[in-house]
Amino acid sequence: ASLQQLLLSLRQSVDLGWKALIAEDRLLSRVEILENQLQTYAKNFTEDKLREELRNLQKDKCVYQDLAKECLQKVLQEKLEVVQRCQDIERELRNAETECANFKEIMEKDHEELQELALKHNAQVLKAVELQNKLQDAEEQKKDALAILEAENEELNNEVKRLLANEAVMHEKIQQLEASGEIVG
């Protein structure tokens, strides 16, 4: 936006410069015309009247020249201000471009670091999934082994009960046989 304002200001200064040059050219043309008229009138005027007219023309010429000089000086000053503003804007633009390049470099480094972190995170997630799967497998194996052990324990308990029942039956038979005298104890 400020660059557009600068260009607009520069264009206005150039326009003013041209207008001042055109105005000066018109003034000089007018002076030339008046001088020509003066020469024409000189033939018809008295010397005193001619001097007075010449003085008036000289005054007009000085006024016109002063106005033209003021316009040119104003245009030149505005042009210098515009050039200074243009240089300031160019410097600010270079600074902004340098800052932009620095930010871009930082952004690229951050992007690379972020990609590395994402890869590490993905690797850790895969490890965690793998460990979770191993843990589930181990728990299932433990559950299966526990079920087998419980079944074996049940079988052994049943065997122990059967053996204890057999022993009790045998012990009772032995007592009966001892009591009947068939076995001497």
UniProtKB/TrEMBL annotation:
Top-level lineage group: Eukaryota
Entry keyword annotation includes Coiled coil: yes
Family matches, as InterPro entries: Cent_Immune-Sig_Mod
Coiled coil: 72-173
UniProt keyword list: Coiled coil
Protein name, UniProt field: Uncharacterized protein
Source organism: Cuerna arida
